[in-house]
Amino acid sequence: MKRLVIVLMVAASVQAVHAQRILVDHRDVALFDSIPAQYRDAAQNLRMLFMDRSVGGNISDALNCLSVPWSNAPNSCKRYQHRDSAYAVAPSEVYWNGTWDRRRWRYEFWPSGCSEDANCFVNFIEPRIDSFDVVGFQFSYLAVMPGANIIHPIDGFFGTRTDRGTATSYTAFAARHPQKTVIWWTTSLARGIGSPESQAFNTAMRDYARNYNLVLFDVADILSHTPAGAPCFDNRDGVAFLTENYPDDGLDIPAICPQYTTETDGGHLGSISAGGIRVAKAFWVLMARIAGWDGRGGSGVTEVPDKVQLVSPAHGTILASDTARFVWRRSQPQVTWYRIEIADSAGFARPLFADSSRIDTTFTTAQLPRGRELIWRVQARNAKGWGAWSDPRLLTLAPLQLFSAVPITEMGRSTYKNFGGGLYPDGTNQRPSAHETAGRALAHAITPLDSLGRPDPVNGKIGLMSIGMSNTGQEYAVFENVVDTFQMKNPNLVVVSGAQSGQTASIIRDPNADYWRIINEQRLPSRRLTPAQVQVVWLKQANIAPTQVFPVHATMLQDDIEAIVRLLPRKYPNVRLLYLSSRTYGGYATTQLNPEPYAYESGFSVKWLVQKQIDGDTALVYTGTAPRAPWLAWGPYLWADGPNPRSDNGLFYVREDFIQDGTHPSETGRAKVARLLLDFFRTDSTTVPWFLRRNTTAVEQKGASSPILLQIISDAAGGGLSAVMDLPRAGSVLLEQFDVLGIREAVLLDSHLPAGRHTVAISPRPGSAARMFFLRLSTADGVSVTRGMRQ
Predict the structure, then answer these.
(1) Distance between CA atoms of residues 621 and 566, nearest Å
(2) Percent of the chain having pLDDT more than 70?
């Protein structure tokens, strides 16, 4: 208790310096445009130093951006587009007025050997304290990794120990320099650091700041809320982002929003500008508050803005175009922001779109759903607060007239614009006999290789890599997760994604393109592969926004893909097999990124390239000691005629299979492609020899004290299936059934059973046809997994 009293007394001395606490979080970012000139000038004259790791460097760079007029700032300051188009922000998020001079504000990297220890900072700044008016340091997310003791009640930052750099020593430092302003920070956040430790530390920091009237810059709160103010949670939320595709763990722990980073595990702010500019604006609000601004305008504004008056579209408008443009009248007085919401229900409980940072009186979008009645409204904000919402208006986008064509696999002898169909020559979907034989021979020759490319059947690896852009990467990410848990998989097989957003066929045909460096320096090492171990490739490529008529653009794409194909033996000397796919359906596209008919017509690019090799073109020779290309064949044909099921496999696409832009796949769209890929690789005659394990009847848990066995047997008379379990001893038993994507379909048994053999019937799912599934048996002795095909 005595130690606690000491801490409270020290905090009280800080309170005397700052009778009015200052807390800046995501709600204060919008105040940036309301900072009165006299407080901006006063803030820039304060001598300030803050210490941080690399994210602090990003913040410092963003402060530099604001120090010049927006029109003269580097492009790196204005990036609002994103590698994942679902997380692009409005241009207004990276816009600012005027110049904001930060020359007296210094950023310092943590001294060597320090690890977010308050004493490290104090030892650095105290000899220099007379050079600054404002000082502070931020904790990096490296300090709140899972398992960190930063929030431990004794050893943590707010703990009771005084022999290390904690809140106690930081508070004591502030008390020794009452004429200085000491800033407290929450920790920076990352996509992969949504940890209970980070959440607990930041909560404790906020409570501590409120209790003792401290100055707190809540950077964690600023970066864990979208521009519209919605909270963001860690990457284990079941929502795919770039190559991130973790299942939902049921915990919503604050993390950096994907709008502010292009990293799937880290939290750097440098690749796009929205996060850095957002924090820089909030930091100016903080410094203006420290300089004396009350945060309530101070600019003569006494009333919130008038109710916004909408201009167009008129109430009840039905739009035939893809693009909707919204216009409203400028409100008064001194509006700094407008907020627009678009919803499909009058309550606006779950808006389809919300943007609270518009600086003008117009908004244009091509990403609204068609055939549904929508409702929209606008309100304005100034330094005093938000005004009243406008009267809402109704709007409808007419149903989309979908592109329709016959899938190439169903064309037979018919033609499309005078060009024949079929995946292979003569309108057939079957490989010619000689090409099939060659592919099988190559497939049987594939063997696990060590890091230098030498055969190693036991510890070697077979690399299966994807090549393409964002769609390919998003689809392949689901496939990777499936394969990693697929019990029939060859244990030496390693799948790796080489797909990268925006890297078109016309870009990566260049052997010096950065695309290849990223694969070799990042993607392959992340899966512990070397270029010498890549033996199989799945390629699905396109070019952005084609405009040429058919067949010109398809021929151009064919030429680009051929150049890529011919690069592969030079980049990956042991690549032998290459499977190509054309694009999925593009009829729902709301942009010119790659709509129909280009998506459909890309199938001809693949068809013509494969046929060119079959016809013996010497530029695509795949035999001999120095092949110029891998053996080429179709992988799964992914196109279907929109909502009309294909005759061969029932494949179809509905609007919900894509995100708002109608081009990039949603969760269901990605799952469809992943299923097609798995079905292809586990059944094709040229993939089975290396994709599947040689004995797939059962997999027993290694290291179990006594092995358990799980089998699936068929009742020849009745056609039913049963699971047979051999249990070495009595105990709790859990038997689960999963589909090929690892999604649990049923719990077949959850009970206590005696030792011995037990049989459980496997009930078919309603309407199920022949399909693959697997069972998992869990007991105290281990886990056994087996697979089966329902007949």
Answers:
(1) 9
(2) 89
In which element (H, E) is residue 393 found? strand 393-397
User: What DSSP string describes 569-584?
Assistant: HHHSTT--EEEE----
Peptide bond into 457 cis (omega under 30): no
Q: Are 210 and 22 in contact (CB under 8 A)?
A: no
The sheet with strand 534-540 has its strands ordered as: 493-497, 462-468, 534-540, 577-580, 631-634
pLDDT over threshold 70, residue 6: no
One DSSP character per residue, 84-149 reads: SGGG---GGGG---S----TTEEEEEPPTT--S-HHHHHHHHGGGGGG-SEEEE---GGGG-TT--
Burial of 16 (0-12, 13-18, 19+ CB in 10 A): exposed
Starting at the earlier edge strand, list the strands of the sheet with 324-328: 310-312, 324-328, 362-365
Give 658-703 pLDDT, tens digit per residue. 887 889 998 889 989 998 999 899 889 999 999 988 743 333 333 3
Name the helix (H) or strand (E) containing 153: none
143: Cα separation from own chain's centroid: 23
Is-contact 251 237, C-beta < 8 A?
no
- Under 8 Å between Cβ of 209 and 262: no
- The predicted-structure confidence for 404-445, as pLDDT tens digits, reads as follows 999 999 998 899 999 999 999 999 999 999 999 999 999 999
C-alpha distance from residue 408 to each of 462, 637, 646, 683 (Å): 32, 9, 10, 21
- Residues 323, 365: contact at Cβ < 8 Å? yes
CA distances from 723 to 520, 762, 777, 781 (A): 44, 7, 10, 18
Distance CA 342, CA 377 (A): 7
Q: Among residues 397, 246, 263, 374, which one has the least CA distance to residue 320? A: 397
Identify the helix (H) or strand (E) that includes residue 522: none
CB atoms within 10 A of CB 552: 11
Q: Which residues pair with 216 in a beta bridge?
A: 23, 184
Q: Token pair of 785, please?
A: 């997994």
**Angle CA 423–668–583, to nearest 5:** 30
Q: What is the rounded average pLDDT of the residues 345-361?
A: 82
Number of other CB atoms surrounding residue 155 within 10 Å: 13
Amino acid sitting at position 231: P
**Using the 8-state DSSP alphabet, how is residue 184 labeled?**
E
CA nearest neighbour of 492 among 536, 444, 449, 538:
449
Phi, psi of 349 (to 5 degrees): -65, -40
Contact 593, 553 (CB under 8 A): no
User: Token pair 């431990």 is at which residue?
Assistant: 152
> How many CB atoms lie under 10 A from the CB of residue 248?
11
Separation of alpha carbons 568 and 559, rounded Å: 15
Q: Are 351 and 396 in contact (CB under 8 A)?
A: no
Separation of alpha carbons 224 and 583, rounded Å: 35
Residue type, 120: C
Q: Are 488 and 693 spatial neighbours (Cβ–Cβ below 8 Å)?
A: yes
Paired strand residues for 461: 449
Report the mean per-residue pLDDT for the chain.
85
Q: What is the pTM of this model?
A: 0.50
Contact 151, 139 (CB under 8 A): no
Q: Does residue 411 contact residue 422 with C-beta atoms inside 8 Å?
A: yes
What is the spatial distance between Cα 140 and Cα 129, in angstroms, rounded to a whole number? 23
**Rounded Cα distance, 441 and 424, in Å:** 20
d(CA 471, CA 670): 8
The residues, any chain, with a CB within 8 Å of residue 526's CB and separated by 6 or more, are 496
